Amino acid sequence: MTGGTSQGGGSVSSTRYRQQINIGEGTAGNRMSSSRFRMLPGVLAAAESSAVTTPLSDLDVHVVKAKTSAGGAVIAAGAWQPDAAPFFFWESPAAGIEVVGYSYAIDTEPDDTIDTAGTSWDVAAATPGTLTDGQHRFSVKAFNTAGASGAAAMFEIWVDATPPAITSYVPTAGQLLAASGTRVTVTTSDLASGVDPDAILVQVNGRPSAHRFDASAGVITVSPEAFAEGVNSIEIRLADAVGNAPAPLIWSFTLDATPPSGTITINGGADTTTSVYVTLSLTAEDAVSGVARMLLSNEQAGPYVEEPFGTPRELWRLNAVRGAQRVWVKFADVAGNVSAPVFDDISLWLLSPETVITGGPSGATLSPSAMFSFMCPEGGCVFSYAFDHDAWSAWSSQMTVERTGLATGNHYFRVKAAKESNSTSGIQADEEDPSPAERTWVVGVNAPVWPSLQGPPIKLWRLD
Description:
Layout: E1 11-13, E2 31-33, E3 64-67, E4 80-81, E5 87-90, E6 99-106, E7 120-122, E8 134-144, E9 153-159, E10 165-170, E11 176-177, E12 184-189, E13 201-204, E14 207-208, E15 211-214, E16 219-222, E17 230-237, E18 249-255, E19 261-266, E20 272-273, E21 277-285, E22 291-297, E23 305-308, E24 313-317, E25 323-333, E26 342-348, E27 356-359, E28 363-365, E29 370-375, E30 382-387, E31 400-403, E32 409-418, E33 437-443
Parallel strand pairs: 1-2, 4-9, 11-18, 20-26, 28-33
Antiparallel strand pairs: 3-5, 5-7, 6-8, 8-9, 10-12, 12-16, 13-14, 13-17, 15-16, 17-18, 19-21, 21-24, 22-23, 22-25, 25-26, 27-29, 29-31, 30-32, 32-33
């Protein structure tokens, strides 16, 4: 400190202190000044003296900091950190001798109520005792004995005390997948410091796996090449930028990308059959999810009849055409994989007779009655017939049938022949003509040119 005095009315000055001295009549006009304090010793009977007002700027708080606790580590301002219960402390203003207390606040301006006479505030001792995650601003200002306050000092603290969350993942636990190219995705969320890409660890079946992380979407993607047929176990570990880490996510799913394999045999491997109805022996296996369904057809291009997998499949109907026949089958597993079709062949030698309609109406007629005659070239046949939507009649050797009182409109007649050809009594399915003869005609129309209709309007149709 440097300074000088003069008893004759000079000044006393210093680079570190502010002083004002009234030493007597001769020094009443002198002053001692400093940037840190002001002194007024005075002497009774001084000729001149005046009241001194402290500048408000001297009450400004300039320094405020934070630690993890009173004796803990320093917390950097404006940077994410995990301590939600910091210890704030500050330095007294320049005119600290006149300060009687401080007002402080979080995320707002301090009010005019003194909160403490000390120079610190421990959040852990307050209620609720922690700050919420996010960016906060702590402010403090000082008050003097006159109730005046200086400018507040501010400390910006960023709190992230919550681990990241895993909000969803695909595929779900226990899911069965059929596509080998399916990707595993895990969606994460951290509203404060964000997920640290370098802290992400992915293990598939106990081995570290390559992955990608989209920070903007918070999505971790695991390459499909990491997965094998069967059960796959996945473990995901992650943390945010300040080290908060949730419990690892562990789950499994099953991958079945290989279709079943199987065989088909017709009538136990026989070369020929005399019946359009055959028995199919089927075998199939699937190593992961198991065989669930089979799809059968007499044509490779289909259509296929889908049924639960089972063996044997009895009474499968071949095409009612003499000669070589082929049955195709495809197998499907529980995951939905469908195999390529496999087949077996057999030759069909039909024992059933042919059916021929020898007489009866066709085209158009005005008659409400119809008589049909029919026969089988093989001879010794029995016949079953049906008009329109009627059920098939009982088997009979009768070779004619008549129907009267037919309504105006379209009509349809079918007849099939059958002949006993085995030792089993009664007509069996393979003893009847698989392709019945049929005839359609219209009642109520003048034949043959149909010049007019008698009765209500008529639609032309046939029953398929």
